[in-house]
Amino acid sequence: xPMQVVLTVAESKRLxxxxxxxxxxxxxxxxxxxxxxARGSTNGYVAExxxxxxxxxxxxxxxxxxPRDHGGPRRKSEPIGEIVLRRGELVQDIGLxxxxxxxxxxxxxxxxxxxxxxxxNLAGILVGHPEGGTIGAALPTIIxxxxxxxxxVGLEKVVAADLESMSELITAEAARSEGVPALWVISSxxxxxxxxxxxxxxxxxxxxxxxxxxxxxxxSVRLLVSxxxxxxxxxxxxLDSIAGEELYPI
Length: 250
Prior knowledge:
The protein is an alpha/beta fold. It has helices at residues 9-22, 24-32, 41-51, 96-102, 133-145, 163-172, 194-202, 229-241, and strands spanning 3-7, 34-37, 83-86, 89-90, 108-110, 115-117, 122-127, 148-152, 182-186, 190-192, 205-211, 221-226.
């Protein structure tokens, strides 16, 4: 019997992280190659699932979106750089450019996104760095070496606008948009949302049915899960296991 479930943003991030950690591309690279986890809020959960231990997630951010009346980050954690694993072992004291230079076919680079056009398999990344930031540094090597780009991103980031058009608009209005981040549209990555996570982990079909809520469910997504009884039961157990995930700390 089909089931519906509402996931908060934090629960979604935890679910996506579990799905990413179980993805065949990632498991293969953890066994035989290199995995790079770029900084980001969802990737903080991914790092926890892969490392098997808690992470100071606010220290693993490159940027953050907060309410306009927010006074700024309350925590002053020492920043954590990109996480690099070689054959599943954490590599210490390696810079991002050095790690990217190691990438080969079958290796994995993980980068989150700020916008999602799910129907067209497009992800948008806000870029404020004058040289393209993390994705600008990594993408040429990823493509040339035939490595895998994994994009963990929640369905909360599905947008109504056409991403390509928005990117072009920002460029066209460059003279009047100083200080406004560019939008880098990615079409070559493997996008993993709550939908893919449920399919990977439970073997059930999953659909994005609705969004939003109040009282702590702001930004939430409502999923419709279907399939045979065993698949739905596995999905129910999976989704129950992440219920009550703590809000993202700031």
